[in-house]
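User: Show me a protein chain along with its predicted structure.
Assistant: Here is one chain, sequence first, then structure tokens.
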Amino acid sequence: MNKKVNTLFFILGATAFNILIAVISFLLLTILYARFLMDRIPESGRSWGFALIFISSIAISFMVYRAVLKFLLTKIDIEKYFDPIFTRKNIKK
């Protein structure tokens, strides 16, 4: 495989990983909310809990994604395996 295919697979895999982490964190936070906090909050305020869970799951997936990506970047030589997505165009005057 060449560098462009490696880059494409990396982007697709990273996107799938990010979505998977978001879904897992959403489900986990929803289960924790339903088990421990649902009975203590009045019905008029329960929808705010789910909105907060949704935003929190996105934030958690972003933090986990950044941590895993930082770890991978220390272990993998980027220039050896991946092609840059955006390159500078040589502008001659």
